[in-house]
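quick q for whoever's on today - can somebody do inverse folding on this one?? i tried earlier but teh output was garbage lol. tokens:
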């Protein structure tokens, strides 16, 4: 997917997570792809959130609490970013793929 303005990204990510089925994920990356947040939909409907970049943390949350968590994670992982990348991942195996560096 193309670069998206960070002001509209939170709403776009929430919409993408609502459309996911079990085992699919959404990955939000910085412009250089060196920092990011991965959101994986679990079988019970909760969301596994993995933060990688400045911090390496993992969270489990409900879809109702997701916007508040993402807003705080965006401020930590993308503090000076104006544009970010959003990818939809169909299988878990695609999460470990090598990313093109800029």
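ok took a stab at it. sequence:
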């Amino acid at each position: 997917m193309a670069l998206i303005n960070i002001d509209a990204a939170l709403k776009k990510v929430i919409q993408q997570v609502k459309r996911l089925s079990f085992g699919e994920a959404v990955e939000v990356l910085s412009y250089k792809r060196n920092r990011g947040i991965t959101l994986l939909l679990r079988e019970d409907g909760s969301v596994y959130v993995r933060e990688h970049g400045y911090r390496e943390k993992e969270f489990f949350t409900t879809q109702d609490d997701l916007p508040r968590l993402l807003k705080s994670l965006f401020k930590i992982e993308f503090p000076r970013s104006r544009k970010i990348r959003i990818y939809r991942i169909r299988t878990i195996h695609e999460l470990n793929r090598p990313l093109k560096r800029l």
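fwiw The mean pLDDT is 88. also Residues 6-19 form the longest helix (14 residues). so keep that in mind when u check it
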